[in-house]
Write a structure and sequence with these properties.
Among the domains are: about 140 residues, Rossmann fold; about 120 residues, GMP Synthetase, Chain A, domain 3 (2-Layer Sandwich). Helix content is about 30%, strand content about 25%. The chain contains 21 helices and 31 strands. It has an eight-stranded mixed β-sheet with strand order 12-11-8-6-7-14-15-24, with helices on both faces. The model has no long low-confidence stretch (mean pLDDT about 95). 5'-O-[(S)-butoxy(hydroxy)phosphoryl]adenosine binds next to helix 12, strand 20, strand 25 and strand 26.
């Protein structure tokens, strides 16, 4: 690990909201007096009825309960739009950059107001009211933001499903939260290729009953419309006014559900509520990106992931910032695209993922160097540990050694960033997420849950609540308690391993559970396994991650076949296609090894530790194999391993 220290540039510190002295002072206040600290910062958003209570949270596994600002009321869309109209009506709220470089659109706060109000009225006409769940399955077009904010305006709960998920995954997520209204588009457009969103919705709905499907026209491609169920957004929008009164909701009323993978079972519906979430998303966005009124801020995520929720839509818009929304991919039409967009729109803050950086690094530095990028001021990274080489390339070539990189650690569950540098306060070390944000108390524990002090390595837990924390698993509070608060009693367990160095800096080492991180996308190995064993030729499957140059982790699959089935290249291809169809392209296995048997204990438990080692091509030291039921299985697995150096 690189331990080179990059001190805060003096000009950045002088102009930033927070320098190191301020960080120390505010961090201390946030921990010693959370009520006082958050009571003050809670006022950064507009409340209809101001809160009088601040923090009311318990991590006691018998009674996990998380409430912030619990007697306050507000409307999230009014905070993201209405309150800016007087001073920022003509300021761009969203700059939309299409997949094709010839297409872009600027939406001012005043225009955003009209669009969101219309969208809310259309949804209202479809029967959507406070507390209802609405599933959004949309490409990266402004209507995705309009639809989110329209739900928030009505007090309805959106559940976004990433456009790369299959009809089956979509169906599971629609029925999981019992949505009666779906919003989609005819087709998406990414890298010049069409994504059949409406056709996928039709497939998902073959076995499900919903009231309405609202279809946004994006490509104009042919889609079938089911009479009485499906409506075109642009036709409905003509019938409604562009004013819709924002609905007053309680701070603890739900804002959205977002499904995410865990180490066991099917994806969980992570539930975030309104007041604390918005305070936390907006405050982290302002301070971590040091975002000022004249910045052009671009986060390259998709709104289908939490990063898009907190750092494309809610955080920036609550702050009255200009947020850029990009429909396309980094490599289309050329590997200069990101930097062309930076120059075109004079982007000053640029937030992306290590997997994109590694891919662009591979394409060659000439694609960066031919662009100007002098508008850039702050860079950011999220989604997985950033390897020091990628960090260095990002810093040297993209930021021309001028721009601090904020390596932000957080999770769908945390709602916002928890561990990160602040550009004006924190000296950087490539590969380290550095220090906790205000109000965040990280700790490292050993397997027994003993807190470890000083420079050490362990499992990353958070000792107390922060306002952006998820409140429950939708419809299954017991699963929430089990997943996050029962491994180490009285602590929130992140599922990540982590090292802390002599300076108190945190270095995330990756997941310690059965979750893998493929190109910054979270995947439960159990989900991929259950998709595989649903194939008629598959008897058993075990899935593990292995180091992958571009993706961070790749998906390594061990499969045993039903009696009479023979391994073949064709079958491997078939299984790849099967998983893509069951879950989506993001779950496509990278390597498939057919095995006559899997290593098991005498009680029948698959020994994943061994499978991980073999997949990593580091099987010299397999650890204790004395509990194996049949040691010969391992010989065959090593012999036929797929990932050879
Ligand atoms: C997992 C959460 C939070 C938005 C994107 C992913 C990994 C995330 C970092 C980082 C090292 C990171 C962790 C975490 N992760 N950011 N800066 N350094 N690891 O959200 O899908 O909920 O995944 O992503 O392993 O647990 P997510």
């Amino acid at each position: 690990m690189s331990e080179t220290l990059y001190p805060v540039p003096a000009d950045i510190a002088a102009a930033a909201y927070i320098d190191d002295a301020k960080y120390q002072e505010m961090y201390k206040a946030s921990i010693t007096n959370p009520d006082g600290f958050w009571g003050e910062h809670g006022k950064r958003i507009d409340w209809i009825k101001p809160f009088t209570k601040v923090k009311n949270t318990s991590y006691d596994p018998h009674n996990v309960s998380i409430k912030w600002f619990e007697d306050g009321t507000l409307n999230v869309s009014a905070n993201c739009i209405d309150r800016h109209l007087e001073t920022r009506g003509d300021k761009p709220a969203i700059i939309w950059e299409g997949d094709d470089p010839s297409e872009h659109k600027v939406i001012t706060y005043r225009e955003l107001y009209a669009e969101v109000n219309k969208f809310a009225n259309v949804l209202h006409a479809m029967g959507v009211k406070k507390g209802d769940r609405v599933t959004l399955y949309l490409p990266m077009i402004p209507e995705a933001a309009y639809a989110m904010l329209a739900c928030a305006r009505l007090g309805a709960i959106h559940s976004i499903v990433f456009g790369g998920f299959s009809p089956d995954s979509l169906a599971q997520r629609i029925s999981g939260c019992d949505s009666k209204v779906i919003v989609t588009a005819d087709e998406g457009l990414r890298g010049g290729r069409k994504v059949p969103l409406k056709a996928n919705v039709d497939k998902a709905l073959e076995t499900l009953d919903v009231d309405k499907v609202v279809v946004v026209r994006r490509t104009g491609g042919d889609v079938s419309m089911t009479e009485g169920r499906d409506v075109w957004y642009h036709e409905e929008a003509e019938r409604v006014s562009d004013h819709c009164e924002p609905v007053e909701v309680n701070a603890e009323d739900p804002l959205f559900i977002l499904y995410t993978s865990g180490s066991t079972g099917q994806p969980k519906g992570v539930l975030h509520t309104s007041g604390g979430y918005l305070v936390y998303a907006s405050m982290t966005h302002q301070y971590i990106f040091d975002c000022k009124d004249d910045d052009i801020y671009w986060c390259t995520a998709d709104v289908g992931w939490v990063t898009g929720h907190s750092y494309i839509v809610y955080g920036p818009l609550a702050n009255g910032a200009t947020t850029l929304m990009f429909e396309g991919i980094p490599s289309y039409p050329s590997p200069s695209r990101f930097w062309d967009v930076v120059d075109k729109h004079k982007v000053s803050i640029f937030y992306t993922a290590p997997t994109a950086i590694r891919a662009l690094m591979g394409a060659g530095v000439e694609h960066v160097e031919k662009t100007d990028r002098s508008s850039l001021r702050i860079l950011g990274s999220v989604g997985e540990p950033i390897n020091p080489e990628a960090w260095q390339w990002f810093y040297d070539h993209v930021g021309n050694k001028r721009c601090p990189i904020v390596d932000t650690w957080w999770q769908t569950e945390t709602g916002g960033i928890l561990i990160t540098p602040l550009p004006g306060a924190t000296a950087l070390k490539p590969g380290s997420a550095t220090r906790p944000f205000f109000g965040v108390q990280p700790a490292l524990v050993d397997a027994e849950g003993q807190i470890l002090e000083g420079a050490t390595e362990g499992n990353l837990v958070i000792l107390d609540s922060w306002p952006g924390q998820m409140r429950t698993v939708y419809g299954d509070h017991e699963r929430f308690v089990q997943t996050y608060f029962s491994t180490y009693k009285g602590m929130y367990f992140s599922g990540d391993g982590c090292r802390r160095d002599e300076d108190g800096y945190y270095w995330i080492t990756g997941r310690v559970d059965d979750v893998i991180n493929v190109s910054g996308h979270r995947m439960g190995t159990a989900e991929v396994e259950s998709a595989l064993v649903a194939h008629p030729k598959v008897s058993e499957a075990a899935v593990v991650g292995y180091p992958h140059d571009l993706k961070g982790q790749g998906i390594y699959v061990y499969v045993t076949l039903m009696d009479g089935e023979e391994p073949s290249e064709d079958l491997a291809k078939e299984l790849r296609g099967w998983v893509r169809q069951e879950i989506g392209p993001i779950a496509s296995p990278d390597l498939i090894q057919f095995a006559p048997g899997l290593p098991k204990t005498r009680s029948g438990k698959i020994m994943r530790r061994i499978l991980r080692k073999i997949a990593e091509d580091s099987f010299d030291n397999l650890g204790d194999t004395s509990t194996l039921a049949d040691p010969a299985v391992v010989e065959d697995l090593i012999e036929n391993r797929q990932n050879r150096a």
